[in-house]
Amino acid sequence: MRGPALRGVVVGGVRGAAVALALAGLGHTLWNGLVEPGTALAFGALIACGELARRDTRDARGTRGAYDIRGARDTRAAQDADGARDAGDAGDAQGGRDVRAAAPEDRQPAPLASAGALAYALLGPDAAAPTHHGVLQIVTVVVAAALAGIVPHIARGRAPTADHLARRVLTVAFAAACFQPLYNSGRLERGIGQGPYLVLYLLLLLGLTALCDAVLAAALAAARTGWPYGPLLRDELRAQLGIGSAICATGVVMALGVAVAGLWALPVFCVPLLLTQLSFHRIAAIRTTYRQTITSLARATEIAGYTRPGHSRRVAALSCAVGRELGLLERELTVLEYAALMHDIGQLSLVDPVRAGATAGLPPAEARRIAALGGEVARQSGVPAEVAVIVERQADPYREQPALARIVRAVNAYEDLLGGTRHPGGPLAALEQLRLGTGRDYQPEVVECLARVLARGGRDRVVPVPPG
Predict the structure, then answer these.
(1) Residue 454 neighbours by CB distance under 10 Å
(2) Cα–Cα distance between 288 and 291 in angstroms, integer?
(3) CA terminus-to-terminus distance, the chain
(4) What is the DSSP string of 9-23?
(5) What does the alpha-carbon distance between residue 1 and residue 381 come to, in Å, rounded to a whole number?
(6) Which of 110, 245, 322, 332 has the fewest CB neighbours in a 10 Å radius?
C-alpha cells in the first residue's frame, strides 16, 4: 500500500481512533453519570472559552506549497492566465492573508483550550479533596466543550480542521491514561507522594505528551501533503518549544493549583497564558505584514512588465515544494520563499527588458550581473542577509552556490522554459532541458526533486499545512 492509499489509512486511522474514544467516553458518561459535575463544568467552560478565543489561521494560505501543477501543462497563453490568477491571490495576501503556510508559532490557535484540557487530564485532588473522574469522562468533557466552543467558528465558516480535534482527543487521552489510573488506584501517592517527585513525574509525562502530539501532527501533515516525515517532525518538535511549552507549563500549574486552592485557581493561572497568546499573535501579525511587504515588492517586476504575471509567486511556491521534498526545515523554507519571491528584482535596473522576463536563457555574464543587482536591491529592502546572498548568487554555477540558491535557479529556469516558446512539449521537455544542464548549471538532486514534485502534482496537489 503506497501513495494516496497509505495517506488515507493514516488520516482515517487517526480520525477513527479519536471518534471511537469520543463515542466510548460519551457512552460511559451517559451510563454512569458525570462524576464531580462542578469540576467537570468548570474545566469544560475553560476549554470552551479557549476555543472561542482561538485565533483563526485557516486563511493563512498562499505561496508555500500552493503550486498547482495542472497550470504547468498548458501553453504559454494558459500560463499567463494562471499568472494573472496568482497575481490576484497575491492581492488577497496584501488584504490580510498570509502568503505562506502557517509557521510553527501559528500551529496552536487555541492554547487556552489545550492547556485546560491538559490540566483536566492531570488533575488529582481538588482543594485537597480526592477526585474520581476517569479517562473516558475526561475525553467526553474535552470533546463536548471543544464542540461547544467552535460553534461560532463553524457559523463563520472557519471551523478548525478535523485533524486538529482528533489530535486534541488522542493527546489528552494519552496524558489521562498515563496519570488517572495511577492516581485513582492510589499507587501514584504511595510510590511518588505529593512532593517534588510528583512534579518530576508530571514534567516527564508532559514531555511524552508533547512528543505524542508532534508525532501525530507530523504524520497527518505528511499524509496530507506527501512531504517527507522527518523534517515535518523536526518542525513540530521545534514548535513545541514555543507556545507549546507555555501550554504544557500552564496545564501542570493549573492542575497543581487546583489541587491546593480549588477551582478558583483556574482563572488566576489563565492570565499568563492569555498574555503569551497575545504576544504570539502580535509577532505573527508583524511577520505577516513583513511577508506581505516582500510579496508586494516582488510584484514590482510584474507591474512594470519585466516578468509575466504571477511568475514570482509560481517560482516561490514550487521552490518551497521542492525544498519540502529535499527535507528543509521551516526556517530554511522561509528564507527560500523570500529569495524566490525576489529573485527577479534585479531586472528593474534594466533599460531594455528581457524577453518575457526569462533570465534562464541569457548569457552567464548578463545573468550574473542582473542577479548581483537584485542582491543589492534586496539588501536595501532590509531582508535578511542570507536572502540577498541567494538572490545575487542564483546565476552562478551550482557548485559555487549556497544550497537554497540551487533550488531557486532550477525552479526559475523551469518556469522560464515552460513559459517561453522553446519547449511547446511542455513540462517534460523543460525538465529534459534542465537535466542536460546538470553538469554545470543545475544540481542533479534538485532537478530530480523537481521532477518528483511535478509528477506527484498530477495526482496530489501540493497544499499548505493546515494550522493546529
Answers:
(1) 22
(2) 5
(3) 28
(4) HHHHHHHHHHHHHHH
(5) 49
(6) 245
Cell readout for 334 is: 522561509
Give start and end residues of each alpha helix (H) in 186-195. Answer: 187-191
Which residues are registered as beta bridge partners of 126? 129
3-state DSSP call for residue 147?
A: helix
Measure the CA–CA gap between 429 and 426, rounded to whole angstroms: 6
Q: 126 — phi, psi (to 5°)?
A: -120, 105
Q: Which of 96, 148, 105 is nearest to 277 (CA)?
A: 105
Per-residue pLDDT of the chain (468 residues; tens, 9 = 90+): 455 676 778 888 899 999 999 999 999 999 999 999 999 999 999 999 988 887 654 444 344 444 444 333 333 333 333 443 343 333 333 333 333 333 333 455 688 889 999 999 999 888 888 888 899 999 999 999 999 988 888 888 777 778 888 999 999 999 999 999 999 888 888 878 777 788 888 889 988 999 999 999 989 888 887 777 888 888 888 888 877 888 888 888 899 899 888 888 888 888 888 887 788 778 878 888 888 888 888 888 888 777 788 888 889 999 999 998 888 888 889 899 999 998 888 887 776 667 655 666 677 788 888 888 888 888 887 788 888 899 888 888 888 888 899 999 999 889 888 875 445 567 788 888 888 888 788 889 999 999 888 887 633 333 333 333
The cell for 63 is 505561496
HSE-up of residue 240 (Cα within 13 Å, Cβ side)? 20
SS3 442: coil
For the chain, the residue count is 468
Q: With beta carbons less than 8 A apart as the criterion, state whether 257 and 269 touch.
A: yes
Nearest to 406 by CA among 313, 324, 340: 340
Report the half-sphere exposure of 273 (CA within 13 A, side-chain side): 30
